[in-house]
Amino acid sequence: MKKQGNLFGIPYDFRRPTYKRMKERMWNPDDERIVTPRTSGIGWTVNLYQLKQRSPLAFYALAVIFVGGMAHWVWKFFTSDD
User: Fold this and answer.
1) Which of 27, 30, 57, 70 is deepest in the core (most CB within 10 A)?
2) Using CA atoms, how far apart are residues 41 and 21, in angstroms rounded to an integer?
3) How far apart are CA 1 and CA 64, in angstroms?
4) Given a cut of 90, is residue 82 above it in pLDDT?
5) Are 39 and 26 in contact (CB under 8 A)?
6) pTM score, two decimals?
7) Each residue's pLDDT tens digit, 46-70
8) Which residues touch 81 (CB under 8 Å, ≥6 apart)?
9) What backbone phi and psi angles, to 5 degrees, belong to 69?
10) CB atoms within 10 A of CB 55
11) Mean pLDDT over the full length of the chain
């Protein structure tokens, strides 16, 4: 089996992720697509640069959800009784 390609139209990439590949798929001003193949694994990821350019509200909503989720995780981690 190849390490990268498409299966039934769904992209996959089982190579070891690299910083360069992550950057070119998640923050790439030169790629006009909002949805790009994942850096590692099966499916798609979001080109955050294009999302910010085309829909700043969606970009900042995603950022708030991410930061809120991380804050919730940290809160639960430090206040657990285990």
Assistant:
1) 27
2) 13
3) 39
4) no
5) yes
6) 0.79
7) 999 999 999 999 999 999 999 999 9
8) none
9) -65, -40
10) 13
11) 94
Q: Please work out, in degrees rounded to the nearest 5, the angle formed at the alpha carbon of residue 65 by the alpha carbons of 62 and 69.
A: 140
Q: C-alpha angle with apex 27: 17 to 58, nearest 5 degrees?
A: 120
**For 12-50, b where at least 16 C-beta lie within 10 A, e where not — what string?**
bbeeeeeeebeeebeeeeeeeebebbbbbeeeebbbbbb
Q: Which amino acid, residue 58?
A: A
Three-class SS state of 33: coil
Cα four-point dihedral sign 38, 9, 31, 45: negative
Inter-residue contact 50 to 41 (CB < 8 Å): no
Nearest to 49 by CA among 69, 81, 24: 24
The pair of three-digit structure tokens given for residue 53, joined into one six-digit string: 């350019």
> Which stretches within the chain are classed as H helix?
19-26, 48-54, 56-79
